[in-house]
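Could you help me review a protein record that somebody else here produced? My question to you is simply how this chain folds and whether the tokens agree. Thanks in advance; the entry in question is below:
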Amino acid sequence: MARKKKGLLLVVSGPAGVGKGTVNAALMAKHPEIRMSVSATTRAPRPGEIDGVHYFFKTKDEFDRMIEENAFLEYMHVFGMNYYGTPKAFVEAEREKGNHVILEIDVQGAMKVKAACPDAVMVFIAPPSLKILKERLVGRGTETQESIDVRTKTALDELKMLPNYDYMVVNDVVDEAVAEMESILTAELCRTGRNTEPISKLTGGETI
């Protein structure tokens, strides 16, 4: 039986309000072989949250031990309270099964993952324009004007990081953005660097 290709790690970033979650959910609904990365955290579970499904819930001592063991692709201390991190073991286990893993993360965390996992596919979800992004934030009806202003300024800083990504997907129409994500998956799976075994067979004197 032919061995499945190793799955991809898709690192997806983009400003708040750009629709990352919507695009990722629609992509996963079409492709059951795509998984969302599960983070580890030291915060307490909320009602209905399941360990290993929503998060891997860890004590501070357990989290510290994982840091010492270099068990994270990236981790951060949020608001000086709880720790969050991306466990290497979960990502690698899924990829070895041939599943693709989406890691939806901010630009700072994405750069850490890029350094730790050079074969990660870096995708930035961008808005059609800053004006439309601001309209989407306002349309949520959950943001104060101060919050909208802060998020808009943060978006400008995040957009400056675009050259550090492999691909830009503009989320104007969700179905079109999903189709572009599918094209990225196809292109990446066809890279020669991800096909060393079949290339070796073709170039290694296989008899006809």
Observations:
- The chain has a mean pLDDT of 93.
- The first helix runs from residue 20 to 30.
- Residues 9-37+100-203 form a domain with the Rossmann fold fold (CATH 3.40.50.300).
- The two ends are 20 Å apart (CA to CA).
